Amino acid sequence: MIEQGVQASTEQGILELFSSHAFLRGLSEQHRLMLASTARHFQAVPGEHLLREGDEARSFYLIQTGRAAIQIHRPGLGTVRLQTIGPGEIIGWSWIVPPYRWQFDAVAVTTVTGLALDAASLREKCTQDHELGYQLLKELLTVVSGRLSATRLQVLDLYK
Amino acid sequence: MNCCFSVGHEFIVPVGILARRYRAARTKVMTQALTTPELSQADVQPLLTPAFVRVREFVRETHDIFTLKIEPPKVNGKPFLIRPGQFNMLYLFGIGEVPISLSGDAEDPSVIVHTVRAVGSVTNALSRLQPGDMIGLRGPFGSNWPLAEARGHDVVLVSGGIGLMPLRPVVYHLLKHRKDFGRIVLLQGVRTPRDLLYPLEMEAWSHEPDVQVLVTVDAADATWTGRVGVVTTLFKDAVFAPARTMGMMCGPEVMMRFAQREFEKRGVPEDQLYVSLERNMQCAIGMCGHCQFGPSFVCLDGPVFRFDRIRRFWEVREA
């Protein structure tokens, strides 16, 4: 996976992406600026892992383009795709939940681009600025709630 | 003692009113299509007893879904007319009868198309039909999708599993009368990739101007490169103007409840939402009571209902 550090010339681009990304729309400009300092551009090609189950959760991904799949491997049964994630969505919240290890795999289905935020810096900033932490968790909870609701519907196996 | 029988578990109907109900129901069945001004009463009289019709073609769609193309019967020497959303009762003599929605082009009077999922004894028997076989057909019955009311609107169709079947005639109509409608959005959810219905047609529709077709599956393996997730997750990518959108939903009721909430979040008014309900329909003329839904009978007053008119019964639980 290609990751690029934030260059001065791209900071404006990152801020623009920050203000247009659905996940961060509810955050103040000041908080976006704080988060931008932890961000790096990334690109993953089809089949490439963004995260692997059991690995340390070092990044928080904001998807700009492309589609990635959350999946899990079942020994002897193969890989099951549980959900796909697209533009404007996020991947990963294990970075804020101890022990900070990924619970599932995430793989690029098509070429995926976006921003990867450094997890350790994020946690530190949230500890230092509780307002940022609250706003971030509120946005994160909205996503988690939506995905839990969708998962519950999946469990019902409605079309059987 | 007042003799009653229980229908739909929630409501009790005195037998004494059945005669009145029968007369009213029959009148309603016979005149239902008069709400569509283009059709006269003589044009739309349903067949109340089974007509013998021939299976012209059998198409295997998926592992458990198939399509029957049937030669239409004549009704008093006139073409058999059926509207999107309505259903026929298909009768296999000696086995039973099932209600099946129209899934073909309602404007093509040369053939009646029904897509069926083999789940019970009658539908499994239907799945063994061959071209040339004869079956019984009564109909058409029930209410239809609000195509006249949808003119000038964006139309968002949400279907889950075999819920696409009754909505396919809507897509045909919208595409045939393209200039009368705004954007067309089709959100389709199925269980697995092998359950996808009409994939070639869906692909073709997605290339039409101002048509958005989004498909997702509930579960897949790593060979599937499409979307995975429930159908409601597609709303975030659906492009439509809520205030002038007509939403039509068909699928499991739990799915439709969640889809309705997505419409609500986007600001689509309740009186612009329609659902097609499924109940145990047996007589198709509102007499037997098996399909009672609140004060309505799904076979007679439905299966297509405007959402705001049934909202108060929407979350009533069956006993």
Could you characterize the architecture of this molecule?
By secondary structure, chain A is an alpha+beta fold. Chain A has one domain: Jelly Rolls (Sandwich). In chain A, 36% of the residues lie in helices and 29% in strands. Chain A is built from four helices and nine strands; from the N terminus they run E-H-H-E-E-E-E-E-E-E-E-H-H. Chain A has helices at 8-20, 29-36, 119-128, 130-156, and strands at 2-4, 39-44, 49-51, 59-65, 68-74, 78-85, 90-91, 105-108, 112-118. Chain A has a five-stranded antiparallel beta sheet with strand order 1-2-9-4-7. In chain A, strands 3-8-5-6 form a four-stranded antiparallel beta sheet, with no helix packed on it. In chain A, strand 5 and strand 6 (78-85) form a beta hairpin. Chain B is α/β, with parallel strands linked by helices and 319 residues long. Chain B has two domains: 41-141, Translation factors (Elongation Factor Tu (Ef-tu), domain 3, Beta Barrel); 154-276, Nucleotide-binding domain of ferredoxin-NADP reductase (FNR) module (Rossmann fold, 3-Layer(aba) Sandwich), CATH 3.40.50. Chain B has eight helices and 18 strands. Chain B has helices spanning 18-31, 41-44, 121-126, 164-176, 199-206, 253-266, 298-301, 307-314, and strands spanning 4-7, 11-14, 47-60, 65-70, 87-92, 96-101, 112-117, 134-141, 154-160, 184-190, 211-217, 220-221, 227-228, 245-250, 273-276, 292-293, 296-297, 304-306. In chain B, the strands form four sheets. A seven-stranded mixed beta sheet of chain B has the order 13-11-10-9-14-15-18, with helices on both faces. A six-stranded antiparallel beta sheet of chain B has the order 6-5-8-3-4-7. The longest helix of chain B has 14 residues, at 18-31. Chain B starts with a strand and ends in a 5-residue tail after the last helix. Chain A binds chain B through residues 22, 67, 69, 71, 78-84, 86, 88, 107, 109-110, 146, 149-150, 153-154, 156-160, and chain B through 160-162, 189-191, 195, 216, 218-222, 224-230, 232-233, 236-237, 251-252, 254-255, 258.
